[in-house]
């Protein structure tokens, strides 16, 4: 079968499944999610074998990227628990809100409905396959998933478990389908078929997004790179600042919500930078600083212009001393990727200005940028972190996979 015919088959099946999923009962969707949690736990050894094949083929990956490819017992337990949590969440579909009686006698409100079919392209991280599948099921959508090529064996094994769980609950297997080839031509076909796909969710770096932006004939919700900042203000609790910035940079290096750039107000630079530099040095984090940073941090190397806009996904951080909150905000809005940025401060007006003026999907006060995550925000799981301003912004959970339609209830009223 040609790739085009294969992708059309997936699309046709997804479209049919979406109709059934939109009408599926909450009980059936929850049964599928609980079956999925159970089957994931039972399939531990088989999944470990599939994942070992992926890891063996990806020996050249850096440590952080290998970490995200791993589907170990802890990751499996977490995704299984995530399915149970999503099952326990209220079903958003069919909810009617805001009903108001109009002078004409009609009542007008809004009903939450699934988007239909979403296509998702994402990195080599097998747990995302389950997070996307479980959110698709609960939100009554169908989806076509195209995971990173290094994770193909793990994803195929996971997709089979998802299909079996859907079937067990009397729901269509095609509600969640995985593209079974790593051929990137499949991505081109997925993003150019509005008859089968209602929205595309690309989750990845600049190369992916450039292609999608140039070729997509389907609406896109971009989940792009994270050049996240932590800004240490002039008035600050230094112990808290060290703890928060350390976590934001070093808790994990590969995620898009890790801090890549540290800005420090000049009034605190001499007190703060040597302290955080000592932490980074012990953890092997390379520091690339402005001239004022170099004077305070002997181990740092000179940053070049490109560093301010670079997402390292590695133990590297750029550091700049700024004169004011205004300079920090302007720097973030110019060089950041509008993903997640944080201020560390004890000054309330400054915190409020940062929240209002930094143009990012998540803005934080005295918290690690690593918190930008659907699970941490109470969404149960996440499709990813949207760097678009619409249809959804920041961590995308169940509601982000739905839209509202108008509902009008009458008793024979006619328009005069
Ligand atoms: N905002 C968010 O929610 C998230 C953002 N990210 C971002 O993703 C990036 C890291 O992940 P990484 O794996 O390097 O991302 P990539 O963009 O390299 O890959 C992600 C996915 O896109 C595919 N892809 C990439 N380029 C193309 C192309 N030109 N045509 C078709 N498919 C393509 C990859 O396929 P293949 O396997 O063939 O390379 C993979 O499936 C970082 O920038 C990170 O910030 C990561 C996670 C979440
Ligand atoms: N929301 C996720 C981050 C998602 C992400 O960036 O993933 P990845 O780039 O694959 O490490 C988390 O904090 O775990």
UniProtKB/TrEMBL annotation:
Its EC number is 1.2.1.41. Residues 9-280, 308-373 form the Aldehyde dehydrogenase domain. It holds the Pfam family Aldedh. Its main location: cytoplasm. Coiled coil: none annotated. Pathway: Amino-acid biosynthesis; L-proline biosynthesis; L-glutamate 5-semialdehyde from L-glutamate: step 2/2. InterPro entries: Ald_DH/histidinol_DH (IPR016161), Ald_DH_C (IPR016163), Ald_DH_N (IPR016162), Aldehyde_DH_dom (IPR015590), G-glutamylP_reductase_CS (IPR020593), Glu-5-SA_DH (IPR012134), GPR_dom (IPR000965). It is an enzyme of class 1 (oxidoreductase). Keywords: Amino-acid biosynthesis, Cytoplasm, NADP, Oxidoreductase, Proline biosynthesis. It catalyses: L-glutamate 5-semialdehyde + phosphate + NADP(+) = L-glutamyl 5-phosphate + NADPH + H(+). It is found in: Cytoplasm. It comes from the Bacteria. GO terms for molecular function: glutamate-5-semialdehyde dehydrogenase activity. NCBIfam families: PRK00197.1, proA. PANTHER family: DELTA-1-PYRROLINE-5-CARBOXYLATE SYNTHASE, GLUTAMATE SEMIALDEHYDE DEHYDROGENASE. Belongs to the gamma-glutamyl phosphate reductase family. Catalyzes the NADPH-dependent reduction of L-glutamate 5-phosphate into L-glutamate 5-semialdehyde and phosphate. The product spontaneously undergoes cyclization to form 1-pyrroline-5-carboxylate. This is Gamma-glutamyl phosphate reductase.
